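Figure caption, in words: inputs first, then the predicted bound structure.
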Amino acid sequence: MLEVNDLKVHLDTDSGIVKAVDGVSFTVEAGKTIGIVGESGSGKSVLAMSLTQLNPQPPAFYPQGEILFEGKNVLKRTKKDLRKIRGNDIAMIFQDPMSSLNPVFNIGDQIKEAIRTHDKKMSRQDVEKKVIELLTDVGIPDPKRRINDYPHQFSGGMRQRVLIAIALACKPKLLIADEPTTALDVTIQAQILELMKDIQKKYGTAIIIITHDLGVVANIADKILVMYAGRIVEEGSVHDIFYRTSMPYTWSLLRSLPRLDIDESERLLTIKGQPPDLIHPPEGCKFNPRCPFVSPECLKMDPPLTERGSNHRAACILSNEQFEEAKQALIIAERKGVHS
Amino acid sequence: MSEPLLQIRDLNVHFPVKEGIFQKTTGHVKAVNGVDLSVNKGETLGIVGESGCGKSTLARTIIGLQKPTSGDILFEGESLPNYSAKQMRALRRDIQMVFQDPFTSLNPRMKVGDTIAAPLKAYKTTNNLEHRVKELMELVGLKPDDHYNRLPHEFSGGQRQRIGIARAIALEPKLIICDEPVSALDVSVQAQVINLLEDLQKQLNLTYVFIAHDLSVIKHIADKVAVMYLGKVMEMSDSLSFYKNAQHPYTNALLSAIPFPDPEKERTRQRIVLRGELPSPADPPSGCVFHTRCQFAREDCKTNTPPLKQKGQNEHYVACFYPIEREQEVKQTKL
Ligand SMILES: Nc1ncnc2c1ncn2[C@@H]1O[C@H](COP(=O)(O)OP(=O)(O)OP(=O)(O)O)[C@@H](O)[C@H]1O
Ligand SMILES: Nc1ncnc2c1ncn2[C@@H]1O[C@H](COP(=O)(O)OP(=O)(O)OP(=O)(O)O)[C@@H](O)[C@H]1O
Ligand code: SF4
Ligand SMILES: [Mg+2]
Ligand SMILES: [Mg+2]
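Bound structure (adenosine-5'-triphosphate present):
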């Protein structure tokens, strides 16, 4: 349904060119959920916004690549086409629902507006009925009364539900959710994740969910893309990423999580250093300054994604076997370090 | 057993809700509503709870930024609300705070070295200021020579949090209140800061009150955990007993809402999904404040308030009439 090929999205800023998305390819299949994970500044939001051309240009520009939605390149569409895609095919929800809702209109009117953009011929009564149906679908109690309320009268979780209702109004084929639960409490996050799964079942919507929470993708994603410094460094099924991890960054990230489900070591394992500066990214593999397995080779060449299994790719000079050996050696060295 | 450094007794912090043109007080937000807690020397007390449950208000009240409505706070056995101005000044040395947002808690125009030096100057604790600042920078993992003259915007979130920590430990405090110190940080950097706080605790014999909304972070760092809901403590226990045998329905709901970073476990586990929304703290439910969202609630929960009561022999306290008793539950499912 959606195919992104070798996409670059760069940003022209006062301090230089930010290579926010720097050669990214992936596909989205109908009815499936893709999780995009990565640290702050790794380019997740810029990538998501580029899919419907929402990045302001300037500073954004597209030096390379294509985004094919149902076979046609989004980058080559007119403004009018793009508005149609956004109103009919691809919907987006963001971390902060307040900023995407209009504070001066009530919730009912905002959903009606979204329905009308999608379907101009629907009768007034049908529109009203549809509004109630959507609010019921997203779990707003007492929707008949709540349609007259304004955004500030809703809690954060309820606002996110309203935004999902607005997104669903156009029966999108693809829903892009950029950190939809990051600002919410965990109990509300659990509700919203359940809701997204129910909606996918009912409407068959494909979902791209962006998050930095590996627990969230473990819960909801079919396929995962791990981003680091504007690149995809590992891609595979949720099982590949969690149980057959093939890239040192993904592996280190998983190890550094404090966990509820296992009794981990006394000390948390860490990744040294900071995420890189995207104006002057490191030479070679972008992860090399922080990688526990770095070798001189890694400073010379930026490894491309290579096959690690069916539909599983990782960007590292180490083969799966070499990576396995290196991991064992590191774990043994760590144990010795602890005991000496 | 070590003695309590900090004791909080029946603490209430209420904010008036004002409405209309005459700003008439129409009610009160009971941000902290009858809280009892104690922290022993060298220990870490973790406080968790959802947004708005009163964690920051509690923190601000402990360091004296917020006046309590009633109740008592004892620091080293002495009551804070009765402190003299002189004692207060000493107290400002002994209790320090680290904030969530390293971006707004630092003065953007002040060089890092000067930021860390400020409390040292105010209390004239050293005659070799620069040396001490560099020592502190070293201690928190900053590069003294490189970083001394730089401004906060030149640092990443994790490094800024290190600056905040250096400032907090400068006067060798006894207690540090950390209000969500790692919530704004990336996972890879979060682990670094947690380790740093743990190392400093050992080296400097610090006591922490560590506020977070993430129970997995608390599990790692805390010796004792308290769960708050609408200004009240719902459950409090030593960490081990807490995570093995959480008894309050709210604690169990919180624990089960956190997604495990393990797809098999995550997709097969049993979940308590909380219904409904957090009630307004200006108009909390009667009886047990949690009863509107509790699946175990019975009639008496709507009218009577369950006190925080000790369960079993451990230092494990639960404010619930019908706590979940895990052993029993396990036995029943086996039958
Ligand atoms: N409008 C802009 N102007 C300049 N730089 C920008 C702009 N938007 C994003 N960037 C930069 O592009 C890079 C990628 O940003 P992006 O917002 O995509 O990160 P992200 O992965 O979504 O991070 P987060 O988890 O913090 O949301 C960052 O270095 C960011 O500073
Ligand atoms: N100065 C104030 N005046 C009036 N109400 C206040 C004030 N400070 C806090 N409150 C209210 O008291 C309650 C508790 O707030 P507090 O900031 O302590 O919560 P918190 O647990 O720290 O939440 P978060 O996780 O969002 O930081 C909230 O309802 C808040 O709106
Ligand atoms: S290429 Fe080298 S530096 Fe990059 S992840 Fe692999 S081992 Fe580490
Ligand atoms: Mg983002
Ligand atoms: Mg707070």
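Chain B has 13 helices and twelve strands.
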